[in-house]
Amino acid sequence: MALGLKPGSVVIECGTGSASFSHHILRAIAPHGHLYTFEFHKERAEAACKELRSHGLGHDLVDVIAEVDVTVNGFGSQNRLVSAVFLDLPNPWSAIVHAKKTLSPQVSFVDNFKGGRICTFSPCIEQVQKAVSELRSSNFTG
């Protein structure tokens, strides 16, 4: 996975949806990592939380945070250094400034990569173009 996730990684995911990608992240970071996954819609967040708990994924591995607009408010009390940020949002470029504040500046000794990683999922080329423009403006490289 391009995010460089491994056991012990701490990850922020925005746009939990059905939690299918959350499952993938959790398999990569277990048993000692942690996922903070944000879902704007309360009902989706509750369903995702129930789904994750039914698979034995407890609070020691994952927190599902509902009704937070990360493009406006950032990541709230989860503003800590993380290994990676995954943005599955209609306007990921609006959350990049917040993501930059949370990504670890440290060198990873596993893959010799400096700093945390960010990934956006954008099905439309216009979304990709805006996200890339904001990433460049925020001095992301890669």
From TrEMBL:
<dbReference type="Pfam" id="PF08704">
    <property type="entry name" value="GCD14"/>
</dbReference>
<dbReference type="InterPro" id="IPR029063">
    <property type="entry name" value="SAM-dependent_MTases_sf"/>
</dbReference>
<dbReference type="InterPro" id="IPR049470">
    <property type="entry name" value="TRM61_C"/>
</dbReference>
<feature type="domain" description="tRNA (adenine(58)-N(1))-methyltransferase catalytic subunit TRM61 C-terminal">
    <location>
        <begin position="1"/>
        <end position="141"/>
    </location>
</feature>
<dbReference type="GO" id="GO:0031515">
    <property type="term" value="C:tRNA (m1A) methyltransferase complex"/>
</dbReference>
<dbReference type="InterPro" id="IPR014816">
    <property type="entry name" value="tRNA_MeTrfase_Gcd14"/>
</dbReference>
<dbReference type="GO" id="GO:0005634">
    <property type="term" value="C:nucleus"/>
</dbReference>
<keyword id="KW-0489">Methyltransferase</keyword>
<keyword id="KW-0819">tRNA processing</keyword>
<keyword id="KW-0949">S-adenosyl-L-methionine</keyword>
<dbReference type="GO" id="GO:0160107">
    <property type="term" value="F:tRNA (adenine(58)-N1)-methyltransferase activity"/>
</dbReference>
<protein>
    <recommendedName>
        <fullName>tRNA (adenine(58)-N(1))-methyltransferase catalytic subunit TRM61</fullName>
        <ecNumber>2.1.1.220</ecNumber>
    </recommendedName>
</protein>
<dbReference type="GO" id="GO:0030488">
    <property type="term" value="P:tRNA methylation"/>
</dbReference>
<keyword id="KW-0539">Nucleus</keyword>
<keyword id="KW-0808">Transferase</keyword>
